[in-house]
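Hypothesis: this fold can be encoded by more than one sequence.
Test: take the structure tokens below, design a sequence, compare later.
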């Protein structure tokens, strides 16, 4: 069984190593390579016309990010999503996003605010259409834009090193209509507080937003583990 979608792009348009690493990261985050599955190295090499050397270099980077586990003489396996891992990562990420919100309120320009509001409007459109994948993409773009307007490269680098582990967790969460509606309400608050340059409230909302996501993912993991045990 193949977990891979069709060809995504010509990997040689950019640095082969960087592009291959990002492509594999996207496959894992979007669930094309699910937690626990063995990374199909031969198939990936054929799919993207690369040799084993750059593929294995990319896998080393993903292992450092916690997305894969390298098994001696057995290749690589996509790491499992565990409650312990989430409980460890989410509070740190929440602190980083809260700081980003405070800095964004102090440093954002009118043009940058207009751009984020445009992203928000696009996200609402996807929500109204029930397009969950496009909603997630727009949602992520908003959080990345908030980091960018914080204008702190060190903060962005630390956030980037953790965010992939959180991004893929959203695909195992059961996004109920109630939780989805609440997430949209939280984003409305984010935009309102950013517009008002209220860094204290925005920091609180960003922390709550991430905590609610952790709660949803944790509940789904508990349900999944219960099914596996039975």
């Amino acid at each position: 069984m193949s977990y891979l979608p069709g060809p995504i792009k010509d990997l040689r348009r950019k640095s082969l190593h960087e592009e291959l690493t990002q492509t594999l990261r996207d496959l894992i985050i979007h669930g094309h390579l699910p937690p626990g599955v063995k990374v199909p190295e031969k198939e990936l090499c054929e799919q993207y016309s690369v040799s084993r050397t750059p593929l294995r270099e990319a896998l080393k980077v993903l292992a450092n990010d916690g997305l894969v586990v390298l098994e001696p003489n057995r290749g690589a396996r996509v790491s499992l999503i565990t409650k312990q891992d989430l409980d460890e990562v989410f509070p740190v990420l929440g602190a980083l996003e809260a700081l980003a919100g405070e800095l964004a309120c102090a440093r954002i320009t009118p043009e940058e605010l207009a751009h984020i509001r445009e992203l928000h409007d696009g996200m609402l459109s996807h929500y109204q259409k029930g397009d969950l994948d496009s909603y997630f993409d727009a949602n992520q773009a908003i959080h990345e834009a908030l980091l960018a307007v914080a204008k702190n490269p060190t903060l962005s680098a630390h956030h980037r090193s953790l965010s992939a582990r959180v991004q893929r967790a959203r695909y195992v969460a059961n996004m109920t209509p109630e939780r989805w509606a609440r997430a949209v309400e939280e984003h409305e608050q984010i935009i309102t507080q950013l517009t008002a340059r209220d860094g204290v409230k925005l920091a609180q909302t960003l922390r709550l937003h991430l905590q609610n996501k952790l709660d949803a993912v944790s509940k789904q993991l508990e349900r999944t583990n219960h099914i596996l045990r039975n």
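The longest strand covers residues 68-71. The domain at 83-229 is CATH 1.20.120.530 (Four Helix Bundle (Hemerythrin (Met), subunit A)).
Hypothesis status: open.
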